[in-house]
Write a structure and sequence with these properties.
Blueprint lengths: L12 E4 L2 E4 H5 L3 E7 L5 H12 L1 H6 L2 E7 L3 H15 L7 E3 L4 H5 L14 E6 L5 E7 L7 H16 L2 E2 L10 E3 L5 H7 L5 E4 L2 E4 L6
Parallel strand pairs: 3-4, 4-5
Antiparallel strand pairs: 1-2, 3-6, 6-7, 8-9, 9-11, 10-11
Length: 212
């Protein structure tokens, strides 16, 4: 299947480094991040899992649960986690799916034949509490993912899910946001009491509405 934004993320039950997990039950009412790796003991992925573990408290603050995936079995995952903890000075305590039969990889379109007929590409999917897919990013094997950017995207997705705003280029938490075009300027002035700055009729800024 080809997974697209707005689709319902497929559920699955699979073995992981923390035991068997049902994806929907694991997520509960949280946001979810599922990201794939070609194999265990790959150098770039070792740094990525380490960085994710280092940012675990940031994900928890945002009500986000993370899961990694590799096509290797659980015993290799456990040994690899030891390497990650040692080399990255972290403690990996989120599950790594053992997708040795590639069931989850096929559900989430993580195997792209032009890259490899068997190994998963390095994709990342953000899933909202209603199970809809909100973001899909696929990286080449040579480029490590930027998990600070992933947190920034989560901030934007959570903000824009609750308010009639969008976030501009390079936006960071705390900066002004854009009023969406579907809201008139008159309505925006009432909706956003912190003020509305009109640059053009279609380009209007307001302070981030969920901050005091």
């Amino acid at each position: 299947m080809s997974l697209r934004l707005g689709d319902i993320a497929p559920n699955f039950t699979e073995k992981t480094s923390l035991g068997e997990i049902n994806f929907y039950e694991y997520l509960g009412d949280s946001w979810g991040i599922l990201f794939s790796h070609p194999a265990d003991y790959t150098p770039v992925c070792t740094t990525e899992l380490g960085r994710t573990a280092a940012l675990q408290s940031e994900f928890e603050k945002r009500n986000v649960k993370v899961l990694a995936l590799s096509v290797d079995p659980v015993d290799k995952h456990m040994s690899w986690i030891g390497d990650i903890n040692e080399t990255q000075n972290v403690s990996v305590n989120f599950p790594i799916i053992a997708d040795d039969e590639r069931k989850v990889s096929e559900l989430y379109d993580f195997i792209h034949p032009n890259a490899s007929a068997t190994a998963t590409v390095r994709s990342l999917v953000i899933i909202a509490p209603d199970r809809t897919v909100k973001l899909i990013i696929t990286y080449p094997a040579s480029t490590g993912r930027n998990f600070v950017e992933v947190l920034r995207v989560v901030d934007s997705l959570q903000l824009t899910a609750n308010y009639s705003v969008a976030t501009p280029a390079n936006w960071q938490h705390g900066e002004d946001v854009i009023v969406v075009p579907s809201v008139s300027t008159e309505d925006a002035i009432n909706k956003f009491p912190k003020g509305v700055k009109v640059i053009k009729p279609y380009l209007r800024y307001t302070p981030q509405p969920d901050l005091k």
